[in-house]
Design brief:
Layout (H helix, E strand, L loop, with lengths): L1 H25 L3 E8 L3 E9 L2 E10 L2 E8 L1 H14 L1 E3 L2 E7 L3 E8 L8 E4 L3 E2 L1 H6 L14 E21 L5 E8 L4 E9 L3 E11 L3 E7 L5 E18 L2 E22 L13 E8 L8 E4 L7 E5 L1 H10 L4 H10 L2 E5 L1 E2 L2 E2 L1 E8 L5 E10 L3 E9 L1
Helix pairs in contact: 4-5
Length: 387
């Protein structure tokens, strides 16, 4: 019944998306961001396009509050065309990068095409070595002109990789069933990871696809089971210049696209896929009362979160082999076990439905653990371990 509701909802969302695109294309053209900064800075605004991020504006902002108005008509038209061509639509994501005398702040701001509303953001600055070395050259009173500084994209790299969405590791006396479904045209958000001295999450690439997929299976006693899906990862390297001298680097990793029709279930770990690091377990003991009645059930209604972690370290490994990512960024990612956070609920609508049930002989007690990852943020995994 839940799946039927999701399928019906998918058709409704498809109509809403099509109507919504027309609506924002005609009426909504701009957004205002109220920026609160603890110090004066140069502010650079990047917008996410189908081909990647682009620098769309630069501003001088004072210490305190200031308003920045951005006109998104061209960005909207590009995404309308992308949906017509490839049936893929991303909600607007703006990346704010503020540069002061010796510090930098990075902030992602998400909007919705159907409801473009003004937002307020607070910038939190951190020191980075590159700017500290040049602080004597950066006159904070006059702070050069905006034209003295500019950003250039120096490198990009993309790769499609499988990611594990769900993993069940039962003990030798448990069997069960798993169901995983992605509805078409529902919003799915993937965290955007940015490295400037340290890793941070700067908003989400919120994607709607005119595509769906599912995997449903029963697994026998003691057999592992994996649900996986292909995603398209993208890496961008941006360099900031002062008078044509490179002074700082920004590295961005994010899911550019995902492919619900590739969702599949297997009893082995897919090649080139791995789980995020496990930093914590939530656990509880369950005793089977009947062989034909599940002793454990997990689905979206009792998962306790509207997001989960998937791996991005395999992509970072590929970046290292290709000589793309900096050694500092790669080392920092490995040290914290960097992952991509997947947000599967927007507008009170769930894009991913999943269900896991476990059975065993009557009277058997099982220790069931649910994994959790901690890096820049904390997120649960759909990873169940039983012993």
């Amino acid at each position: 019944m839940k799946r039927i509701r999701l399928l019906v909802g998918s058709l409704i969302i498809l109509l809403a998306v099509m109507v919504g695109i027309v609506y924002v294309g005609v009426i909504m053209n701009s957004v205002t961001i109220r920026v609160e900064s603890p110090e004066k800075a140069n502010l650079y605004v990047f917008a996410l396009y189908p081909t990647g991020f682009k620098n769309i504006g630069k501003y001088k902002i004072p210490s305190g509050k200031s308003d920045i108005t951005l006109y998104l008509r061209d960005l909207k038209q590009v995404w309308i065309n992308e949906y017509k061509r490839n049936r893929t639509l991303s909600q607007p994501l703006l990346l704010l990068v503020a540069v002061s005398k010796d510090k930098i702040a990075v902030k992602g701001v998400n909007f919705d095409w159907d409801h473009l509303k003004s937002k307020s953001v607070e910038l939190k600055f951190k020191e980075i070595d590159e700017l500290k070395k040049l602080s004597s050259r950066l006159d904070l009173e006059n702070f050069h002109t905006l034209d003295d500084f500019y950003w250039s994209i120096e490198d990009v790299y993309e790769r499609t990789l499988p990611v594990i969405l769900c993993y069940i590791n039962p003990d030798d006396s448990s069997w069960g069933a798993v169901d995983f479904f992605c509805a078409g045209n529902f919003k799915v958000g993937f965290s955007v990871n940015v490295f400037m001295g340290s890793w941070s999450v700067a908003g989400y690439n919120v994607i709607q696809k005119d595509d769906y997929g599912s995997a449903m299976a029963s697994f026998p006693t003691g057999d592992d089971y994996y649900i996986w899906m292909d995603v398209r990862y993208r890496y961008e390297k941006w360099v900031m210049y002062l008078d044509d001298e490179p002074i700082s680097t920004m590295e961005i990793i994010y899911v550019k696209d995902f492919y619900p029709s590739t969702i599949a279930g297997v009893t082995y770990k897919p090649p080139n896929a791995q789980l995020p690091d496990v930093d914590e377990w939530e656990y509880k003991y369950y005793t089977s009362t009947r062989r034909d009645y599940p002793y454990y059930e997990l689905d979206v209604s009792n998962f306790g979160a509207d997001h989960f972690a998937i791996d991005c370290m395999k992509f970072i490994d590929a970046l290292v082999l290709a000589g793309k990512i900096s050694s500092r960024a790669a080392t920092a990612a490995s040290a914290i076990g960097l992952f991509t956070d997947v947000d599967f609920e927007y507008d009170d609508v769930v894009s991913f439905y999943f269900s896991v049930v476990l059975y065993s002989n009557s009277g058997k007690t099982h220790h069931v653990r649910l994994a959790k990852s901690k890096a820049v943020i904390t997120a649960p995994q759909i990873y169940i371990d039983v012993d």
